[in-house]
């Protein structure tokens, strides 16, 4: 009998989310209103120690509006990783600035502080590190560079709901921190984003920019966008907030099981967690020797019914849309990671049987060789 397929990701939507949507639809208040305001307050309390938080219609919108609110624009450079989703560099370009691609460190796939320091120029406005796969970037090193050169830090916390560095939550470290609420993230609002802000001036400017440049109707202060979050999305997000802590514990427990069972397999490296880091395992990302990774991915799917994901197979500086910003120096760790990473299922929907099948499948495929 064909085994049920184990997906790489599985959004969790239940009756409470459905009821919340119905409640909002029946209320007649659908655009940005009391649900959005409540979601902003509750998200801030839950994740970012009460920092002022602004809801928008996507994580990418939050990233762009955050940069604009922080004063990033033409003539500025922002240091970014190439090994991440393209939205990071896209937001810099859309703000009118120049993304400067810098290599990652090999252990946690986040910006290498030493390489960041070497990339600073007179035009550098800030650094946009990514808390990748749910593991925080190396905050101490990045903050040291930022302090020494008078630079801002703009956090991409899209995958890091609940992650922390030495007790400091993701989203409380930079001028702003952007969280994504896309369906496959650790919690969702179906779509949307949240921006936590270090000061009220940045928060107010984001509120203006998301709503056609106005806080008071028809009193447009700046040229803005329509990047508002709907009441429906906020209602779903509020329900998910009540569950995300338990889901995170499940992710961490699933990751601990996978660590214990996979650590001894030749040719495979399990994720490392830095001292002082709280990893929330948006992805459970292993390394497999270059040339073997795709074979393992395909065999897991075809022979064992186990899904997986390759995030990210094409470094940003190789994308046609961003190649014009390609660095003159090589990014060897970025190139190597793009060839070796494989993300195995770690989501809270996994059963004990699913976890056993993942481990059995990986062991069998790895031992089979090419």
Explain the overall architecture.
- The protein has two domains: 15-241, 3-Layer(aba) Sandwich (Aspartate Aminotransferase, domain 2), CATH 3.40.640; 244-368, Aspartate Aminotransferase, domain 1, CATH 3.90.1150.
- It has helices spanning 15-27, 34-47, 59-69, 87-94, 113-119, 139-149, 200-210, 231-241, 244-262, 293-304, 332-340, 352-368, and strands at 52-56, 77-81, 98-102, 124-127, 152-156, 164-165, 168-169, 176-180, 193-197, 268-269, 277-278, 284-288, 341-344.
- 39% of the residues lie in helices and 14% in strands.
- The mean pLDDT is 97.
- With 370 residues, the chain is α/β, with parallel strands linked by helices.
- α9 runs parallel beside α12.
- The protein contains twelve helices and 13 strands.
- The relative contact order is 0.17.
Secondary structure blueprint with pairings:
Elements: H1 15-27, H2 34-47, E1 52-56, H3 59-69, E2 77-81, H4 87-94, E3 98-102, H5 113-119, E4 124-127, H6 139-149, E5 152-156, E6 164-165, E7 168-169, E8 176-180, E9 193-197, H7 200-210, H8 231-241, H9 244-262, E10 268-269, E11 277-278, E12 284-288, H10 293-304, H11 332-340, E13 341-344, H12 352-368
Parallel strand pairs: 2-3, 2-4, 4-5, 5-8
Antiparallel strand pairs: 1-9, 6-7, 6-11, 8-9, 10-12, 12-13
Helix pairs in contact: 1-8, 2-8, 3-4, 3-7, 5-6, 9-12, 10-12
């Amino acid at each position: 009998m064909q085994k049920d397929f184990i997906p790489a990701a599985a959004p969790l939507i239940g009756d409470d989310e459905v009821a919340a949507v119905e409640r909002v639809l029946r209320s007649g208040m659908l655009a940005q209103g009391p649900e959005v305001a409540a979601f902003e307050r509750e998200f801030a309390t839950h994740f970012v120690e009460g920092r002022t938080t602004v809801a928008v219609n996507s994580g990418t919108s939050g990233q762009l509006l955050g940069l604009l609110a922080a004063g990033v624009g033409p003539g500025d450079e922002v240091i970014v990783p190439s090994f991440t989703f393209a939205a990071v560099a896209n937001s810099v370009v859309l703000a009118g600035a120049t993304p400067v691609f810098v290599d990652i460190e090999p252990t946690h796939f986040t910006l290498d502080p030493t390489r960041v320091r070497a990339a600073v120029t007179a035009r550098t406005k800030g650094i946009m590190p990514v808390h990748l796969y749910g593991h925080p970037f190396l905050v101490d090193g990045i903050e040291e560079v930022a302090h020494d050169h008078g630079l801002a830090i703009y956090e991409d916390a899209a995958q890091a709901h609940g992650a922390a560095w030495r007790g400091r939550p993701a989203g409380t470290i930079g001028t702003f921190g952007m969280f994504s609420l896309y369906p496959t993230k650790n919690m969702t609002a179906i779509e949307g984003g949240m921006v936590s802000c270090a000061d009220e001036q940045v928060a107010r400017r984001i509120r203006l920019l998301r709503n056609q440049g106005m806080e008071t109707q028809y009193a447009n202060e700046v040229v803005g966008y329509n990047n508002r979050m709907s009441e429906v999305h906020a209602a779903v997000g509020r329900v998910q907030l009540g569950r995300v802590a338990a889901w995170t514990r499940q992710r961490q427990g699933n990751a601990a099981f996978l660590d214990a069972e996979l650590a001894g397999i030749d040719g495979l490296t399990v994720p490392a967690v830095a001292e002082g880091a709280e990893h929330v395992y948006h992805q459970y990302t292993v390394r497999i020797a270059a040339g073997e990774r795709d074979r393992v991915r395909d065999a897991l799917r075809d022979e064992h019914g186990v899904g997986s994901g390759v995030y990210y197979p094409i470094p940003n500086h190789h994308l046609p849309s961003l190649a014009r910003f390609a660095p003159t120096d090589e990014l060897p760790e970025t190139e190597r990671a793009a060839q070796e990473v494989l993300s195995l299922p770690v989501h809270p929907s996994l059963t004990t049987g699913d976890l056993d099948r993942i481990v059995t499948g990986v062991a069998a495929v790895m031992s089979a060789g090419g």
